[in-house]
Design goal:
Layout (H helix, E strand, L loop, with lengths): L3 H4 L5 H12 L5 H35 L13 H46 L2 H6 L2 H43 L2 H48 L1 H6 L3 H53 L5 H15 L5 H23 L20 E11 L2 E11 L4 E6 L5 H8 L7 E6 L2 E2 L5 H7 E4 L10 H6 L7 H10 L3 H6 L17 H15 L3 E5 L7 H15 L3 E5 L11 E6 L2 E6 L1 H7 L2 H11 L5
Parallel strand pairs: 3-8, 3-9, 6-7, 7-8
Antiparallel strand pairs: 1-2, 1-4, 4-5, 9-10
Helix pairs in contact: 2-11, 3-4, 3-6, 3-10, 4-6, 4-11, 6-7, 6-11, 7-9, 7-11, 9-10, 15-17, 19-20
The chain binds adenosine-5'-triphosphate (ATP).
Adenosine-5'-triphosphate binds next to helix 12.
Length: 600
């Protein structure tokens, strides 16, 4: 599970294309299916005209070949030439119509795949997300969707029309002349396609080398410029230039190879087409001499071969792009195959507690089987009471909050809300009931207002401002030139740690959940602000079940119950006074913080 991605089977190109079919022929979307059919109809008309055009061309040549007396105005090839022009235009118009009609299907498919993947990624567990780089995931979707676009573009604009055209041309040649013409044209095109694919596969190595060395030298250049001062401290300009040049040299080497191999490909393609053309022309020339063909027929046969191979000019490029796109699509579809670690039970019990009672019953948990994190933890927070969890760093305090939120499932025991195991209720109901202020607050790159309102996007403005007041951030926001409309920057980095925490508190207060969970929620604040917020938190969370994870013990004195956690075990529990009397770890920690000036 840890690296589910790499353990998935490799999909064949056809399987990947097959996965795309339901998006291109979507269930219940008669309109889109209709579009696909109409597009095929337009494509057929456009190709029939395309194949008919050279026949008109042939007719006019044959007419021009007659003696001048035989050419009257009407029999002049003028009409045929006009028809030729009209056909040319017609083929183009139908081709464009086909593109217009398919655009909607194409974009529907791209949007649906992106949405499905996005929804799926949101359902994947925290474990999966911690194992992956965020940027990597969004790039996988972006590249996958681009891949679909490329594959569709080449197949709709290039490959499928090309196949249609080949089919019609062979029918015409067979009917009008002899099967040997069809055979020669097919042999030529087959050799052309075969050689192109083989040589392109060989060329891909150089092209990849070009991309990777270009990337490499760019990264090195940026890194060295970012470290401008360090480079100067050590006088290492020459060293940096040499490192940069390694990438440039590899690029140049690969680019030269790339160019040489492209020329080799072009020459091979040219050779195959020339041989094919010469063979056709020789055959046609004999037939003309034997009176089996006219000069027009001679031109017609050549025109067909040229007409068929011209779109194949970009075959090498198209093949490379499609191959790359299929790899990117596979990565995206693989994401869709990653199973969900946390799933709702088939028949979740309804749950809508206003004041929930939280119970941990003999809970054991590990992130990896080789290291136990929580060992047989049992405690209860009765409805409306406050429980604080304290202990040394790494003892497993935040883990308790993650388990209550069901980011992970426990290995043993049960966690219950109002007597219902959290695995038996829906994740939506569970998470709706809990308001979490996490240890590290990350904000959306939007306005302060947006970030507070996130707690309840439907809340009226007054409620948002009220939450900000309770979290003691309203006055600060008012002093900002743009007030609530101030952008907080990427991950909220334009706000100080304390301001971010207060925004996080405000948005949780706005959510008004049944259970409050504060994980070191006020650790980034100065003592004075902390005291003020504590007062607000107390006011809002009064009569609400509250779990506080805290480092600074002064913030938990009033808790109804304090649990002291050490190496994943509860070693003491009781009220502040009880624990001081017990003279255990809590009393020791209290003394230390008192001496350290953390408690004032
Ligand atoms: P602190 O006060 O420093 O926040 P804590 O008591 O909240 O500490 P937890 O975050 O619960 O500690 O972590 C408990 C232990 O679990 C730590 O030793 C930590 O290294 C480990 N741990 C936390 N998250 C993971 C994870 N995703 N995978 C593996 N181990 C983890």
């Amino acid at each position: 599970m840890k690296n589910a991605h790499s353990t998935l089977d490799k999909k064949s190109d056809l399987t990947i294309l097959g996965l795309l079919v339901p998006y291109l022929w979507p269930k219940g979307r008669i309109d889109l299916k209709g579009r696909v059919l109409i597009a095929f109809f337009f494509l057929t008309i456009s190709k029939i005209i395309n194949v008919y055009m050279p026949i008109l061309y042939k007719e006019s040549i044959d007419l021009l070949g007659l003696s001048s007396e035989a050419l009257t105005w009407l029999s002049l090839p003028v009409l045929i030439i006009l028809a030729y022009g009209a056909a040319r235009l017609g083929a183009q118009v139908f081709n464009e119509l086909k593109d217009i009609i398919t655009a909607k299907v194409e974009h529907y498919a791209m949007r649906e795949v992106a949405l499905d993947t996005f929804k799926h990624i949101h359902k994947l567990s925290l474990r999966f997300h911690l194992d992956r780089k965020m940027g990597g995931l969004s790039r996988t979707i972006e590249r996958g969707v681009k891949g679909i676009e490329t594959v569709l573009r080449f197949s709709v604009f290039n490959i499928i029309p090309g196949l249609f055209e080949m089919l019609f041309v062979s029918i015409v040649l067979w009917v009008m002349y002899d099967i040997s013409y069809v055979i020669i044209i097919f042999l030529t095109l087959f050799s052309y396609i075969f050689a192109t694919i083989q040589m392109t596969t060989w060329r891909i190595t150089f092209v990849r080398q070009m991309f990777s060395s270009e990337n490499d030298s760019n990264t090195k250049a940026i890194d060295s410029l970012l470290n401008y001062e360090t480079v100067k401290y050590f006088g290492n300009e020459d060293h940096e230039t040499e490192r940069y040049d390694v990438g440039l040299r590899t690029y140049a080497h690969a680019a030269i190879k790339g160019k040489q191999s492209l020329s080799a490909l072009n020459i091979t393609q040219g050779l195959i087409i020339s041989v094919g053309l010469v063979a056709l022309m020789l055959m046609a020339a004999f037939d003309v001499r034997n009176g089996l063909m006219t000069v027009g027929d001679f031109v017609l046969v050549n025109t067909y071969l040229i007409q068929l191979y011209l779109p194949l000019n970009i075959l090498g490029f198209a093949y490379r792009e499609i191959k790359l796109s299929l790899t990117n699509m596979e990565e995206m579809f693989d994401l869709l195959d990653v199973p969900h670690e946390i799933t709702d039970s088939k028949d979740p019990l309804p749950f809508s507690s206003k004041d929930a009672c939280v119970t941990f019953e003999n809970v054991s948990f590990d992130y990896n089987p080789d290291r136990a994190i929580l060992k047989n933890i049992s405690f209860e927070v009765p409805s409306g009471k406050t429980c604080a969890i304290v202990g040394s760093s790494g003892a497993g305090k935040s883990t308790i909050s993650r388990l209550l939120f069901r980011f992970y499932d426990i290995t043993k025991g049960a966690i219950k809300l109002d007597g219902i195991d959290i695995r038996d209720m829906s994740q939506k109901d569970l998470r709706h009931a809990i308001g979490m202020v996490p240890q590290d607050t990350v904000l959306f790159n939007d306005t302060i207002y947006y970030n507070i309102a996130y707690g309840n996007p439907k809340a009226p403005k007054e409620a948002v401002l009220e939450a900000a007041r309770l979290a003691k951030i309203h006055d600060f926001i008012e002093t900002l030139p743009q007030g609530y409309e101030t952008m907080v920057g990427e991950r909220g980095l334009k706000l100080s740690g304390g301001e971010k925490q207060r925004v996080a508190i405000a948005r949780t207060l706005l959510k008004r959940p049944a259970i409050f969970l504060f994980d070191e929620a006020t650790s980034a604040l100065d003592t004075q602000t902390e005291k003020e917020i504590q007062k607000s938190i107390k006011a809002v969370s009064a009569n609400h079940t509250t779990l506080i994870i805290a480092h600074r013990l002064s913030t938990v004195i009033d808790a109804d119950q304090i649990i002291v956690l050490d190496h994943g075990e509860i070693i003491e529990r009781g009220t502040h006074t009880d624990l001081l009397k017990a003279k255990g770890l809590y009393a020791k920690m209290w003394k230390k913080q008192l001496e350290g000036g953390e408690i004032v």
